[in-house]
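[09:14] KT: can someone run the structure on this one? pasting the chain below
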Amino acid sequence: METAGLPTKELRLHLVTWNVGTASPPPDVTSLLQLNSLGPTTDMYVIGLQEVNSKITNFLSDLAFDDPWSIFFMTVLSPLGYIKLSSVRMQGLLLLIFVKHVHLPFIRDVHTHYTRTGLFGYWGNKGGVGVRMSLFGHTICFMNCHLPAHIENTEQRLDDFEKILEMQFEGEDIPSPLDHELLFWFGDLNFRIADYGIHFVRESINNKRFSLLWEKDQLNMAKKKEEFLKEFKEGPLQFKPTYKFDLDSEIYDTSEKKRKPAWTDRILWKVKNLSEVASKEGEFPEEENQISVILNNYVSHMSYGISDHKPVTGTFKLEMKPLVSDPLVVLSPEGEWSAEHDVLLRYSAAPELPCSAWDWIGLFQVTFRHVKDYVTYAWVEDDEISCSGDGKEVYMSASEIPKMGGEYLLCYFSNNLQSIVGISEPFQIQPSQTPVGEDVPEEENSWPQKPDNPKSDGDSENRKDI
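[09:31] RB: done, structure tokens below
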């Protein structure tokens, strides 16, 4: 696909890390997500949580249904035009990614994975969860980690992170985390402030002399001597250490343990440098094909008191030359849609789309939460009624169309790419002239299934994380 003359793409990413200490979601996250920001609209939210309630009853329930935190963020963000692109959970670790609808056709090859490091790798109370993707043709990986606690366990933290970096995503030609063009590493990394006593640390914090503590921050120290950390970047720690606080307060630990404050909650990133790419690909790539990362804001949010950690957010501007400029599928409704009659939609697919008999087109409300949040769907092959040079027509039965009407979208889901590769403009469905009942489904949808084969293929395990 020709992209030579295209302008640089700018995307705004807002990343959250928060050890929530098994608490329920707070009443409001407006400031946490910068929902009242006067700046550019956020294109992608990446939310990494640690210590989500994982008692056995909660965890088994969350395996069958979305957990309360996922539901909470979907409820906040879906009315604003964001869809949950992907999520992955390992006990108390949860990683959620939300994107604006308009970007969906340009996000492909989404995969998730996790690595346990607790109890010698057998227990998932510590470790890392990851989501990787191709964004406008560029590879990006997000890793949310919860590393071992206590000041004396620096080496164990570093060893565990090295193990997490060996994570292998399933799929052909999927690079390791370090081989992505851009890698974000964040979470409750649990690094502490060495050597200084609690009184010196607290006094430095009270006087806002944070720089006095930077050189003894264990992560800063490790970045200087550990080769695998040297290319990770982080914004300046110009905010109070985010651990450990009394609940519902801005007061550091007053319990008997009186934990020394520390910057346990961090956000770092690594851009793959040109020489690395050259050695892998055998030629020196053009500078313009690289991603640049600009950190606009790196702050903690002191007003949130549901746990003994304060959340930390990083707001980034990503600049990249798009290597993918056109959606693989263009689709639109044909004629007027209502529940009074069967309806038609038209789509055209790019030659490079890896078609499958399991591709489907879903009808969604404009405020849909995730890819399974469809109203109805049609199998691309089974429900096709005509084919011409400028596209194909697919029908949907009148009985499946919402009688109440309203504003909707059509999305084409590629089974082979495990992602939405085409999305229509919003359009109106006319309300039915006959008496209507309730259109909203009683239960959460499952993956579209063909009646002759309830398990579509070996990708069913991957699908639950999309």
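[09:33] KT: thanks! The radius of gyration is 24 Å.
[09:34] RB: yep, looked fine to me
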